[in-house]
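Progress against Task 2.4 (sequence-to-structure conversion) is shown through the following example record, which the project officer requested during the mid-term review.
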Amino acid sequence: MRHRFAQFVALVLALVPLSPLSAAETVKHTVASGESISFICITLYGHYESAMNAEILKLNPKLADVNQVSKGSELVFPAPSGAGSPSNQFEKGAAVRQAVTTYVEGDVTVTGSGGRVVKLAPNTILNPGDAIKTAPGARAEIIVDGESVVRVKENTKLTFRQAHDQAAANVPTKFSLDFGSAWTAVKRMAATVNRFELTLPTAVAGVHGTVYQATVGDDSSSVVKVYDGAVNVHAVPPPDETAGPTEVEGPHEVSASEWTRIVRTMQQVKIPRSGKPGNPEAFKKSESDSWEKWNSERDQSAFEIFGETR
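Structure tokens generated for the chain above:
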């Protein structure tokens, strides 16, 4: 009899709908300019999943579309402690390996590995091989694993290659830049291994705890500007040390140092179509460059996600 009663109680509890989260189990967030649901989730929990949307919409009945949030709106989210959360997807510090678009402005498209072209929306989780292309006046932002941020300028094509594998230090986040400009901010880590690589037409920029911009011109030449930290720029493909590329003058052997440059804070390096980087040279920030100013402002939010002050 006692066993049947316990079964009856379990059945009743299963049929009763769960009560909504209490105020102690939620947090309120006022949407700032340029914020998206995915950006807010990464700020609160360190990651974003599309499965979160259902609970977020339930907590915010006036929100019709998670891709359309307005500045000044007050939204409710599950508390990021895990206690009282509807599932562990809202727990802070969960290990993830993902690239998420957290900001989209203007006409931006993404081409998947299958060749299908669709309009890119915020809160989109990218897959390796996805290529982002921005039209004139457009821009986009991507956060990878909560430890690196990439922003795409207008008239740019950027392809996501892979996310950093936290279990393998030698597997960095990788993007390739075909043309246009990309701005990158990477979290500082205790280890000195490269956590982020950007492949240019004739070079690879490997970084660690760095803020920099790369631009690829119509002739496949590139310019890398470092605003903070250091970038290791080397030719692609790496030269054969016993037989140098034909672009190198003289009959001497080519050393790796001739094809590698360490570019430091407020320095830039130019990489011609031949692939051999020039010598680093100083540059100054432009007060009139709206793109540079916009990135510097958004970097402050990125540093907060990284848990850094710069």
